[in-house]
Amino acid sequence: MPTAPRSTAPTEFAYLGPEGTFAEAALGTVTGSPGTVGTRPEASVAAALTAVRNGECAAALVPLENSVEGSVPATMDGLVTGDPLVITREVFLEVAFVLAVRPGTDAADVRTVASHPHALAQCRGRIAELLPGADVVPAASTADAARRVAEGEFDAAVCAAIAADRYGLDALVTDLADHPGAVTRFVLVEPPGGLPAPTGADKTTITAVVHDRTGALLDLLAEFAVRGISLARIESRPTRERLGVYSFSIDVEGHVSDRRVSDALAALHRRCAEVRFLGSYARADEQPGKPVEERVGDQAFAAAEAWVARVRAGTAV
Ligand SMILES: O=C(O)C(=O)C[C@]1(C(=O)O)C=C[C@@H](O)C=C1
Questions:
Q1: What separation in Å is there between the alpha carbon of 27 and the centre of ligand 1?
Q2: pLDDT at 245
Q3: Which residues carry the site feature described as Essential for prephenate dehydratase activity (predicted)?
Q4: CA 245 to ligand 1 center in whole angstroms
């Protein structure tokens, strides 16, 4: 059924719910004190992105990658297809897991353990050691698993301590992760609009599909290297067109308002089969990144352009 057009701009921020997910905790660092900005739990990353694309929410906070398990495919793929969305902020959250059970449950009673696949993967070794006979079941999120344990569907959930509290569960084991100190990187995405102002410690994210020819990826990387732009992350995802055609998801240091970055993106636009700009935003770690060589600083670009203009005008050689 067609929905009536909205009369007011959306204000709520969507996140992977239900209440008690790491995504909700990360969103709390963006929205500040509770009540300042409305938050809305969604059943999946895809649903959170859809809520922004269809105008129901102003933004969505979604997990992009984890320091132990790598990228979150639902987010990577959700940003590459569909109406454009751009990242306006990133948040790093240290994730620690507990094994949550209904009060009175012992390890010997646990036959099923549920969680988000990324959380299960980060605790794979400990689960196998503590619960060798248990079935491991994927859930939509860590808090979804906790809620379903409270409802009696599963015996245990791998979730945040706050989710165990929220759903009245006990933490049978704390510090469950195989690699303590894991960090998940979340990004706030919004419909394209004004860009966040450069801070001097920024990141730019793009996706690019290269033509199927020898050296295409090397050529793409060279566009960044010759302009002194450091890559912070690169990985490939299938485009789902056919085997062998990939979309490269890339973070580089710098802001699109830096001449070296905009110049590199323009070169990629000429060179690649497809490029999507996914945002320039402040780095969560506030680190300035690698020093920018003088030859690729904004002043060097301005001086070079002024010289070309003089050449074109016939006043310089
Ligand atoms: O299920 C949650 O609590 C989430 O916020 C999702 C998610 C993820 O997608 O990686 C976030 C952080 C943890 O690494 C595990 C799960």
A1: 12
A2: 82
A3: 184
A4: 28
Domain ranges for the chain: 97-173, 195-316
CATH topology of domain 97-173: D-Maltodextrin-Binding Protein; domain 2 (3.40.190)
| 3-state class (DSSP) for residue 4 | coil
Give how far the C-alpha of residue 52 lies from the chain's centroid of Cα atoms, to the nearest Å. 15
More confident residue, 3 or 127: 127
The fold of the 195-316 domain, in CATH, is Alpha-Beta Plaits (3.30.70)
Tell me which residue has its CA closest to atom 1 in ligand 1.
Answer: 141
How confident is residue 244, by pLDDT bands cut at 50, 70 and 90? confident
Determine the average pLDDT of the residues in 81-87.
95
Q: Where are the alpha helices (DSSP H) in the chain?
A: 22-31, 45-53, 73-80, 117-122, 124-130, 142-150, 161-166, 216-225, 259-271, 298-312
* 142 within ligand 1 shell (Cβ under 6 A): yes
CA 41 to chain centre: 17
Q: Decide: pTM greater than 0.95.
A: no
Those residues whose C-beta lies under 8 Å from the C-beta of residue 21, and which sit 6 or more positions away, are 15, 41, 141, 142, 143, 144, 160, 163
Three-state SS for 170? strand
28-37 average pLDDT score: 75
What ipTM, to 2 d.p.? 0.95
Cβ of residue 116 lying under 6 Å from some atom of ligand 1: yes
DSSP class of residue 293?
P
| pLDDT band, very low/low/confident/very high, at 287 (cuts 50, 70, 90) | confident
For ligand 1, whether the C-beta of 23 sits within 6 Å is yes
Ligand 1 atom with minimal separation from the 26 CA: 5
Q: How far is Cα of residue 18 from the mean position of the Cα atoms in its chain?
A: 19
195-316 shares the fold of 97-173: no
